[in-house]
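Worked example 2:
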Amino acid sequence: MAAINDLISQIQDETLRNRIQEEVSKMSKQKKFGLVFEEHMPESTPLYDMPIKRGCNVMRRDSKDDKSIYVVLKVEDDTAVCVKPEQKDEAVTFELKDIVRVAEFGEPIYPYLKPLDSVCNAPDSDLWHTLIEADNYHALQLLEYLYAGKVDCIYIDPPYNTGAKDWKYNNDYVDGNDAYRHSKWLSFMQRRLKLAKKLLNHKDSVLIVTIDEKEYLHLGCLLEEMFPEAHIQMVNIIINKNGVSRTNEFKRSEEYAFFIMFGDCAPVEMEISAYSPYYDERNEDTYSNKIEAYDVSSPNESVRWERLVRGGPNALRTARPNLFYPIYIDEETKTIQKIGNTISLDKDWRSLPEKQGLRAIWPLRTDGTEATWRMQPSSLQKKLDRGCARVGEYDKKNDRYSILYLADVQEDRISKGDIVITGKREDGSVIVEYASARKSVPTTIWGGAHFSASEYGSKIITKVFGDKRFQFPKSFYATKFTVAPFVANKPDALIVDFFAGSGTTMHAVNLINAEDGGHRRCIMVTNNEVSADEAKMLKDKGYQPGDAEWEKLGIAHYVTWPRTVCSIKGQDVNGKPLKGDYLGSEPPMHMADGFKANAAFFKLGFLDPTAVSLGMRFSEMLPTLWLKTGAKGKCPELTGEQVPDMLILPENQFAVLTNENTFADFAEKLAEHPEIQTVFLATDYEVNYQSMVKNLNVENAYQLYRDYLDHFRVNRGRN
């Protein structure tokens, strides 16, 4: 509709314009079923490293007000003569410094990866994570070439389309006041999800998308429409118990996570602990006053101690007067000293005499209502004698103590050995824990203090940087527990996040690996947008996108990569040890210890297909080949312009033949390295390629250059 309205506005005849507008309005109000939205086409990617030449598309560097695409007619000295495609007779001249070459949606691209940096904290490991600075649409096209059908888990936290200025993905893409912003957002997401779908292993994989209430309905419909073969569930995650204030709205406390599960994929059972993804009294004292009902004297303990006071409408004193009696405790030692007798309904418990030095605890609710205990005095005494009853925590607000006990079912499990007694407290009560870790599939409502975006998102960012460089980072533990149920049984899982943000996903994957010894690999993608405030500051100083001063404040360089380096090394940006421990790890893991992991940082660039076919850009393509073979060992680099006839890379587990005339020597050397099972063979002739493959004993072979070029030619405009 946006495009139609723009065209209508250009009609000079007012009567005709109004009639057409009226008819279009009628049509737009007709009932439609399913998700209906306009596939907007305004996306383009600036290619700052590509030269501007005749016939290429360009746009203004500072394109906030003018997003028009121009075609270059000619380049003269430091200027370019350009026209809009729809206005070829109206040429304009720009200085080259004021424009940038762009790739529009649907154009064929020939990407490569330019190494920017790396961190190696596990020199004897072949595990290498990857961060790619790029528009994620083009990065996904590259990842399709590398890993189609091989990804185990995609986790993304896309922009929520709230209209906020802190949207780091594409600040100018959807204006908060745009009447078509929902439609544009859906179009934006649909293109990327189409590509994401091609990456997933459809026999067993999951796509996870987090969102808030602004777009969750639209997103849910889109996912149902795009993935009819998948099983889809939504989980509520409490991220701020106090709620985030919004003008004229309820405070927001939660966000949502969609799980799109393919094939045999299903969440596995997770250990139940204080840090499990559950929303109940087990792990969140802010939502329940029952936290003391769980034995937390040991980090591994989660055996429930029940509250003795009975709840529910049928638990009033009037219903069961024989269960209303005092329990006398010593407040100093927090011990039960005596169990009193039942008193009749006609007696006021407040009028009974006190026992010297002891405090009487009655079965009262927080509002003072008279309730009942769950058992007779004699039964409670037997529990007490066995160490299965005790005094709970003091409730300062209501000036009362709770009484806790182990239910009969728990005592039965003790007798069976499912629960073991590991000691006794000073009050004589038993310390118990499960003989083996209890496991369960998470529920659809998650909560806990560790899911707080402020406490375990923003504060972790502050630990790393000393300041708040990124607005609204995800809770580190929310991300971890979102991914963990689907990769716990896949120690070599490949995980992709193409809305990397502050880099929480790779950080979380490293912790999962450290806890169970896994070798899961993470690929993150983010652009290098700067915040609105940073953009204004830079513009005031005369800088433009693409300038070094501008780019170094972009999210990839300023947030995502530094966090990756710091979390792996266990240091902040100043080289000082990170403070604190990771929650729930046993034995405790210190942030300062870092992770035995490595990561490489690349920027996505674009190659000229003619130069690729002539073998002139082999060195630029080498990181792509490295990724395609699993990113094993440090990414190889070539020095100088001379391309070797062959590369035998046992540490990277692949080999390359660039000169087919040396095949015999290549085959002989390759035979000495049976660990190499992937080869790239450069030849223009299919017959020659097939002949070489037959003479090699390898699992994977690719026709260098042609395989690459054909992929992107064939897939031109496919989405």
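Confidence is low (pLDDT under 50) at residues 164-177, 279-301. Residues 181-199 form the longest helix (19 residues).
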